């Protein structure tokens, strides 16, 4: 029991944000008379916040180094404008156009990373310049007008659903089977990880508590999957998000590069003295941010079925807020991909719930600002308490 208590105190940020998400969902489920968790509305929450969640994954790596990227909204808008021009105006094939847009995002990220890592210009300044430049280039590319509609194949990749191969109408059996398989795989790998930690003498949750965690998580996720199955099943964009979460969770937790990012954020000088090429880490983090900004821009353009000059406005602020609400530390070195996703979902549920009950946009901004301030204050409080 003492070990369980110590593990709880060590991971208090993660547990706190999970409790906060559950509390906010239950609160708005009550205030909206059950509308929040209806199948159609759940699907809308996923699709409306998908591009912010994609950006939050990339922004987390920037924050882990103790920095942020202010350009991601403008980069997303610019890549969406280029993609729309390729596919809707020049009539280029969809798949090659998507790959070229992703390559463009990587090149933009490399441009930022070059100035930040090798010239040591502060990331705030470089990405602020990028925000202004790529917002202007978006207007140049679109000539101040909206390009629409997008090709049907492109729209389907962003807004369609995984077909129900197993069902015959009604409840989407494929969605339930797919989520169930993912849960079983998660339980298997989590158990294997727990076994390896025990073998090396690390502290882990007692087996009964671990089983309780898996059962509760499985029940919540399957209930969520059931609601989606009552509508049209799993959106394509949720499949993309799941893939990105798995890939970046593996990168940050199981690879040398991921450990280097955390070491960089914890203490850059110490990381450099230990042999880590901090310039390379910086460069790759921002190159990756450019890639994910491109992904978010394409997802947003596909959902909107258009490229708009006003696309991407405040995306960077929502992505940064999602990371901090999800437990990332403003000083760097602390944060998880799962935490960033949970933080983004908290923001998404707040937006959706407040819109349903009729809270005006101005007060929504006030409430979200206070939530962000509270999350960072909690981070500072727990850090100071741990230092005593």
In brief, what are we looking at here?
With 388 residues, the chain is mainly alpha-helical. Helix content is 77%, strand content 0%.
Description:
The protein is mostly helical. The chain has a single domain, classed as ABC transporter involved in vitamin B12 uptake, BtuC (Orthogonal Bundle), CATH 1.10.3470. Helices cover 77% and strands 0% of the residues. It has 16 helices and no strands. It has helices spanning 2-10, 12-31, 39-64, 72-89, 94-118, 123-142, 152-159, 173-199, 207-230, 236-254, 256-266, 268-273, 278-304, 315-325, 337-356, 361-387. Helix 4 runs antiparallel to helix 5 and helix 4 runs parallel beside helix 6 (123-142). The mean pLDDT is 90.
Q: Count the strands?
A: 0
Count the DSSP helices.
16
Major sheet details? none
Structural class per helix/strand content? mainly alpha
Order of helices and strands: HHHHHHHHHHHHHHHH
Name the helicity range: over 70%
Number of domains: 1
The gyration radius over C-alpha positions equals 21 Å
Proportion of residues in extended strands: under 5%
The average pLDDT is 90
In the CATH hierarchy, the third-tier topology is known as: ABC transporter involved in vitamin B12 uptake, BtuC
CATH class category name: Mainly Alpha
Task: Name the CATH architecture.
Answer: Orthogonal Bundle
Low-confidence stretches: none
- In whole angstroms, how far apart are the ends? 23 Å
Question: What's the shape?
Answer: globular
């Amino acid at each position: 029991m003492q070990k369980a208590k110590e593990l709880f105190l060590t991971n208090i940020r993660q547990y706190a944000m999970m409790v906060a998400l559950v509390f906010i969902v239950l609160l708005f489920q009550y205030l909206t008379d059950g509308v929040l968790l209806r199948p159609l509305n759940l699907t809308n929450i996923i699709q409306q916040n998908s591009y912010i969640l994609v950006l939050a994954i990339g922004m987390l790596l920037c924050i882990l180094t103790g920095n942020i990227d202010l350009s991601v909204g403008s980069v997303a808008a610019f890549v969406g404008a280029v993609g729309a021009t390729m596919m809707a105006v020049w009539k280029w094939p969809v798949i090659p156009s998507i790959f070229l847009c992703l390559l463009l995002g990587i090149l933009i990220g490399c441009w930022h990373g070059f100035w930040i890592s090798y010239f040591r210009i502060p990331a705030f300044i470089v990405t602020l310049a990028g925000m202004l430049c790529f917002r202007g280039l978006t207007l140049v590319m679109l000539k101040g007008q909206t390009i629409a509609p997008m090709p049907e194949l492109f729209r389907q990749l962003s807004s369609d659903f995984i077909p129900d191969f197993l069902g015959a109408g009604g409840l989407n059996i494929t969605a339930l089977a797919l989520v169930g398989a993912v849960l079983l795989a998660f339980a298997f790998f989590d158990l294997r990880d727990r076994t390896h930690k025990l073998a090396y003498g690390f502290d882990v949750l007692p087996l009964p508590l671990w089983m309780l965690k898996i059962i509760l998580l499985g029940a919540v996720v399957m209930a969520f999957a059931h609601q989606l199955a009552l509508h049209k099943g799993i959106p394509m964009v949720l499949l993309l998000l799941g893939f990105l979460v798995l890939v970046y969770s593996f990168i940050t937790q199981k690879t040398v590069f991921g450990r280097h990012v955390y070491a960089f954020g914890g203490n850059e000088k110490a990381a450099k003295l230990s042999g880590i090429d901090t310039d390379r880490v910086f460069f790759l983090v921002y190159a990756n941010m450019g890639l994910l900004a491109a992904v978010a821009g394409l997802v947003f353009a596909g959902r909107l079925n258009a490229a708009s000059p006003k696309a991407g406005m405040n995306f960077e602020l929502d992505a940064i807020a999602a990371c901090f609400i999800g437990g990332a530390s403003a000083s760097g070195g602390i944060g998880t991909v799962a935490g960033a996703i949970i933080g983004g979902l908290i923001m998404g549920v707040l937006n959706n719930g407040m819109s349903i009950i009729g809270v005006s946009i101005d007060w929504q901004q006030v409430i979200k600002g206070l939530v962000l301030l509270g999350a960072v204050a909690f981070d500072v409080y727990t850090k100071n308490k741990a230092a005593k």
